[in-house]
Amino acid sequence: MSEPVERIKTLIIGSGPAGYTAAIYAARADLKPVVYTGMEPGGQLTTTTEVDNFPGYPEGVDGPTMMVQLQQQAERFGTEVRVGMVTAVEFSDENGGIHKITVDDSKQIEAETVIISTGASAKYLNTPSEQRLRGGGVSACAVCDGFFYKGQEVAIVGGGDTAAEEASYLANICKKVTMLVRKDHMRASKAMQHRVNSLDNIEIRYNTEVDEVLGDQVVEGLRMVNNQTGEKEEIAITGLFIAIGHKPNTDIFKGQLEMDETGYIITRGKSTKTNKPGVFASGDVQDKEYRQAVTAAGTGCMAALDAERYLALVESKETVDTE
Ligand SMILES: Cc1cc2nc3c(=O)[nH]c(=O)nc-3n(C[C@H](O)[C@H](O)[C@H](O)COP(=O)(O)OP(=O)(O)OC[C@H]3O[C@@H](n4cnc5c(N)ncnc54)[C@H](O)[C@@H]3O)c2cc1C
Question: So what's the pLDDT on residue 104?
Fold first, then answer.
């Protein structure tokens, strides 16, 4: 016999800073939130050791600890956290409509409101040496980890706007930044290229790719290869930043929610509202600008408040309609 369909007031998809912050606010507003953790319980911060820039931790905190604490805070107010992956959705177009959610291809849920906090995954090169040294000097976030390489020599891979922006951010902190651009030109806007070119401690290597990241436990150097001549060269660095883009985790929402050309969910104005009534998006999944834990948490708070206000409006309209 198949399981009965469960009705949930506020379903939160994702357990990163956005999802858990939404849960804290939703639980305190008595929306009885249920969080589905997905394949990475705690989100991206569980892949990093040191978080130095989240307010409230004067000594810094390691990512997994911070995420366990956020989960505990959400649970303290009655959030139910479940391990499971949302595999399909069918969002209603109606104001006050019920959204149908499938978890792990089997469990059926009906939700009055849905908060999407599924994040965006950084793209990596996926070479063995890069993967081995992730967290040991290989990072996909210059704003997060650049500080740890103050006064040191680092390299960055990528030629788009994000890479150019992160290279200039690193140039302010580090002694030297070597920028590896795969093509013979950068994709970044002219203004960003100008910024990178104007900084003396950035050296741009065109037609250049990573051959191998060197080091056993931590990054000690980089072997680069010129993809035109095949010539290889080693440089000493302590940090390697990968800035070749992010992929928002939105595949299951395609065709139902408005997204930009790269798959980020579009939210309305200053709110977290999507194009479907009662469906809200928070965190990196709708933010390609900032992608920080604190901004994700901020929009998680907004999403819970938006959900609460939406439910109150729906309820009041129902009352009016039936009078
Ligand atoms: C190595 C690294 C270091 C970082 N360091 C810092 C730092 O020091 N400071 C800082 O502010 N930021 C840092 N960041 C950025 C920060 O981690 C992100 O901005 C933040 O985690 C985004 O939060 P989020 O809640 O939007 O998404 P995420 O943290 O990405 O969480 C997404 C969640 O959604 C879940 N999910 C995805 N798909 C589904 C599905 N179909 N069903 C159910 N669940 C699903 C995942 O399992 C995960 O729990 C770092 C990022 C990385 C990669």
Answer: 97
Dihedral of alpha carbons 293, 297, 302, 308, sign: positive
Atom 15 of ligand 1: nearest residue by CA position: 292
User: Is 284 part of the annotated catalytic residue set?
Assistant: no
Residues of the chain with pLDDT under 50: 320-323
CA distance 224 to 208: 7
Q: What pLDDT, on the 0 to 100 scale, is given for residue 321?
A: 42
Sign of the torsion formed by the C-alpha atoms of 206, 211, 215 and 217: positive
Return the HEC string of 68-101.
Answer: HHHHHHHHHCCCEEECCCEEEEECCCCCCCCEEE
Tell me which residue has its CA closest to atom 21 in ligand 1: 44
This prediction has a pTM of 0.88
Q: What share of the chain is helix, strand, coil (3-state, %, to 5)?
A: 30, 25, 40
Cα 190 to middle of ligand 1, angstroms: 31
144 labelled catalytic: yes
Pairing relationship of beta strands 232-236 and 221-226 according to DSSP bridges: antiparallel
Taking the centre of ligand 1 as the mean of its atom positions, its distance from the CA of residue 317, in whole angstroms, is 36
